Amino acid sequence: MYQIKTYNAIAQAGLDQFNDQYQINKTNDADAYLIRSVNLHDESFPKSLKIIARAGAGFNNIPLDRATKDGIAVFNTPGSNANAVKELIISLLVASSRNLFDAAAYSAHNSGADISLRTEHDKTKFKGSELTGKTLAVVGVGHVGSLVANAASALGMNVIGYDPYLSSDAAWHISTTITRARTLDEALKDADYVTVHVPKNEETTGLIGKEQLAVMKDGVHLFNYSRGGIVNNQAAVEALDAHHLQTYMTDFGEDILLNRDDVVVTPHIGGSTDEAEVNGATQGAHTIMTYLETGNIQNSVNLPNLQVPFQAPYRITLIHKNIPNMVGQIATALANAGINIESMSNAARKDVAYTMIDLDNLKNEEDNKLIDTLSKIDAVFRVRVLKH
């Protein structure tokens, strides 16, 4: 029986995916966590914990280095909220181009018998522009960015996409009408609107700063519905004060952005729809079951992808450092134990590696002894024995 612990409100449709081999929230000594936005950086993990699945795209609320050293596989659910974010960006493109927020605020504070005359006189200050024919730069054309690019193109916008890490698979999801920029500056320099959709890491933190804003033309509209810190907010405010940047809309508030007519801050609602929550919970549940039952990995954020059909009676999985002679040491330990290897697969991701070994025979009483032997190999973080 596998034990699942949930944090936050996980959609019931996702929890219903677990079969009768799983119990939910019966103990803190769980095999798996299914979470959303809870901050786990100060949490201690039980030794039983093997996997953390984040029902959503972001994972900066999880201490990846510590999880890896504890032999815990961490997954997100990429694409589960992509449509939700896309629809919000499209709505904000329309709102910013037509000055809808300012217009609504004006109407909310002007009422009375003369409102019709006053409105007719004042409405020209809210005159906007149409999106058709305008240029949108999409920085990052993965799950979310590709949907935004295609939707904006369908609205008649000229779309320029920039993503130095664009994979061949992702490229298939981008309309042929999208122009691919070779550099970030090339994407930004002629854009009327700029939206960023990249994961947050060392390379992307501060990706849009003073230098990049200077490349943009006057009157540009900027959107950050990716992660806080991707856009340098101080630089954005300075560009707003200089009337170089016209509006800035973001899902990630900061004191410097508050109480400004040219800034719209939403309360981290980019992926907050009923459908996205169901998608994330469902994908997270299937990810947990696949990993616990087969050891196969896809969409992990701290381990390499490795998927091998589980057809043998037994499977051993090991999370370990990616250093020379690890596979040799593992194979030698099995040989010394008189265990024959049916097949072995290995993959690495930077400093971490993952090995799967299928066996045609293993006596039940050997399980704990084998785990103990393999766990004593220096640089091994976690050993599991799975039965088909």
TrEMBL record:
<dbReference type="InterPro" id="IPR045865">
    <property type="entry name" value="ACT-like_dom_sf"/>
</dbReference>
<dbReference type="Pfam" id="PF02826">
    <property type="entry name" value="2-Hacid_dh_C"/>
</dbReference>
<dbReference type="GO" id="GO:0051287">
    <property type="term" value="F:NAD binding"/>
</dbReference>
<dbReference type="InterPro" id="IPR006140">
    <property type="entry name" value="D-isomer_DH_NAD-bd"/>
</dbReference>
<dbReference type="InterPro" id="IPR006139">
    <property type="entry name" value="D-isomer_2_OHA_DH_cat_dom"/>
</dbReference>
<dbReference type="Pfam" id="PF00389">
    <property type="entry name" value="2-Hacid_dh"/>
</dbReference>
<keyword id="KW-0520">NAD</keyword>
<comment type="pathway">
    <text>Amino-acid biosynthesis; L-serine biosynthesis; L-serine from 3-phospho-D-glycerate: step 1/3.</text>
</comment>
<comment type="function">
    <text>Catalyzes the reversible oxidation of 3-phospho-D-glycerate to 3-phosphonooxypyruvate, the first step of the phosphorylated L-serine biosynthesis pathway. Also catalyzes the reversible oxidation of 2-hydroxyglutarate to 2-oxoglutarate.</text>
</comment>
<protein>
    <recommendedName>
        <fullName>D-3-phosphoglycerate dehydrogenase</fullName>
        <ecNumber>1.1.1.399</ecNumber>
        <ecNumber>1.1.1.95</ecNumber>
    </recommendedName>
</protein>
<dbReference type="InterPro" id="IPR036291">
    <property type="entry name" value="NAD(P)-bd_dom_sf"/>
</dbReference>
<keyword id="KW-0560">Oxidoreductase</keyword>
<dbReference type="GO" id="GO:0004617">
    <property type="term" value="F:phosphoglycerate dehydrogenase activity"/>
</dbReference>
<dbReference type="InterPro" id="IPR029752">
    <property type="entry name" value="D-isomer_DH_CS1"/>
</dbReference>
<comment type="similarity">
    <text>Belongs to the D-isomer specific 2-hydroxyacid dehydrogenase family.</text>
</comment>
<dbReference type="InterPro" id="IPR002912">
    <property type="entry name" value="ACT_dom"/>
</dbReference>
<feature type="domain" description="ACT">
    <location>
        <begin position="315"/>
        <end position="388"/>
    </location>
</feature>
